[in-house]
């Protein structure tokens, strides 16, 4: 008979396997939804809807998460049921090719269900995993977990891109390529579901009602630390999604890149992301999530505007490497801040309310971006204007909100410059760059002493 600690230890391993297979689903499936829509001849407005409406509806449905937890009397059951139904949605998604004139709209509808099933259980999963992970080890644990998931997401993305490149000789063969990668995505999510079923759920007291209503949360948001954080992320994601849907059509329509080159450029961000996740996680544990949020929040906005300066493949890969480096830190800080600033009892509700507001922000950003792309002709590529606007809006959001957010934990002080150096040197006490720097310093010191 296993005790509670042994069950938790096993479950944390299962969570890494669950995340690994789930990330493979993303690499084989989600990463190519936009490319599949481009293959189906989607318009720019349809692409903006495809990149936002499903996520928004998924977020809105999280308002029902608490009720569903009460219905199933378990967070685990809700998470597992959502994962299973999300798995099955790959079947109609792959079959829309045969749906005739309105196949893009059918794709958007099926992806709406895909996201609803996938995200409705997110607050329950956050609450569940939050009870399993020791708060002092969150950064390092999620850093390790994210490194595994990042690598497999990267590997599966490359494999999917290779498959599409191999199957690109004709329309029918191209479709078979998409059908194959979506089948692999479905199989990956099925294994993820199996490991979710194996995991242990600690005892959880289901609240009779939400500790505060959605309206109360919105009214009080600007006066509370977590509320300001939520407002900031909503503005950031609004700004991001003004341009997010259009990097794929820019590469495939305007630059006319092959699926192979498109995949390599997309994967470049993933490679730095999976390398940096555990590093940012350890830095988050030591120096706090606010410091990471501050550093990355001011380095991340420049990413979209960099795309307008050159269409050179190596240049685009370099941008993506930088993007993955910064977004790894920003995502890690954002994820850990939720755990730091919410209690176990309120976490499900807090995450659900955040996701609802975030979903609305994403939809508004994508729709506005879609109309800007449709009605502007300022540059040789109609996508450049949304890249510039996204850059400006991201900086404004960081300038306004980051100074207002405060650190929750007691952490060590460090300057932004030193934190960035520590991130670059990849664990400064062992990092190669740091060792070279310190070795040179020691040599200079020795020479001075000899003199």
Q: In CATH terms, what is the fold-level topology? A: Growth Hormone, Chain: A
Protein structure class: mainly alpha
Radius of gyration: 22 Å
Helices and strands, in order, run as: HHHHHHHHHHHHHHHHHHHHHH
Name of the CATH superfamily? MFS general substrate transporter like domains
The main β sheet shows up as:
none
Number of strands: 0
Principal-axes shape call = globular
User: Averaging pLDDT over every residue, what do you get?
Assistant: 86
* Number of H/I helices: 22
Domain count: 1
Question: Your description of this structure?
Answer:
There is one protein chain. The protein has helices at 4-28, 33-39, 44-50, 53-60, 65-72, 75-88, 90-95, 103-119, 122-132, 138-166, 171-198, 214-220, 225-243, 247-254, 259-287, 289-299, 303-306, 313-341, 344-375, 384-401, 416-424, 432-450. It is mainly alpha-helical and 451 residues long. The chain has a single domain (4-201, 217-407), classed as Growth Hormone, Chain: A. Helix 1 packs antiparallel against helix 11 and helix 4 (53-60) packs antiparallel against helix 19 (344-375).
């Amino acid at each position: 008979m296993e005790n509670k600690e042994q069950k938790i230890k096993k479950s944390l391993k299962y969570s890494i396997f669950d995340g690994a297979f789930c990330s493979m689903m993303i690499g084989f499936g989600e990463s190519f939804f936009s490319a599949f829509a481009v293959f189906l001849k989607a318009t720019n407005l349809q692409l903006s809807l495809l990149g936002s409406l499903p996520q928004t509806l998924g977020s809105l449905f999280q308002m029902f998460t608490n009720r569903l937890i009460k219905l199933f009397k378990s967070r685990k059951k809700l998470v597992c049921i959502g994962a299973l139904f999300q798995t099955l949605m790959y079947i109609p998604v792959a079959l829309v090719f045969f749906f005739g004139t309105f196949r893009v709209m059918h794709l958007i509808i099926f992806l709406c269900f895909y996201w609803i099933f996938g995200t409705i259980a997110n607050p329950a999963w956050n609450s569940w995993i939050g009870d399993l992970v020791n708060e002092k080890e969150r950064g390092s644990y999620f850093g390790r977990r994210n490194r595994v998931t990042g690598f497999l997401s990267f590997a599966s993305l490359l494999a999917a891109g290779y498959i599409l490149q191999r199957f690109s000789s004709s329309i029918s063969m191209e479709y078979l390529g998409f059908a194959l990668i979506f089948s692999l995505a479905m199989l990956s999510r099925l294994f993820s579901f199996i490991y979710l079923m194996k995991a242990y759920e600690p005892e959880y007291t289901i609240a009779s009602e939400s500790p505060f209503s959605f309206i109360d949360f919105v009214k009080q948001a600007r006066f509370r630390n977590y509320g300001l954080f939520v407002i900031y992320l909503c503005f950031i994601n609004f700004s991001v999604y003004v341009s997010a849907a259009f990097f794929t059509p820019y590469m495939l329509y305007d630059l006319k890149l092959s699926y192979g080159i498109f995949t390599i450029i997309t994967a470049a961000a993933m490679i730095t992301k999976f390398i940096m996740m555990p590093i940012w996680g350890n830095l988050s544990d030591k120096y706090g999530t606010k410091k990471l949020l501050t550093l990355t929040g001011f380095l991340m906005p420049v990413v979209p505007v960099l795309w307008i300066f050159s269409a050179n493949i190596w240049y685009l890969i370099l941008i993506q490497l930088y993007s993955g480096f910064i977004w790894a830190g920003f995502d890690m800080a954002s994820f850990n801040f939720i755990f730091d600033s919410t209690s176990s009892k309120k976490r499900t509700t807090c995450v659900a309310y955040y996701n609802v507001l975030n979903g609305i922000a994403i939809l508004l950003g994508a729709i506005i971006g879609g109309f800007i792309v449709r009605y502007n002709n300022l540059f040789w590529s109609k996508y450049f204007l949304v890249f510039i606007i996204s850059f400006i809006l991201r900086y404004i959001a960081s300038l306004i909100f980051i100074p207002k957010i405060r650190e929750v934990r007691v952490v060590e002080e460090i300057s932004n410059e030193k934190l960035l150096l520590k991130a670059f040197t990849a664990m400064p006490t062992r990092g190669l760059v740091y060792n070279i720097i310190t070795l040179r310093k020691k040599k200079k010191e020795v020479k001075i002493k000899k003199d």
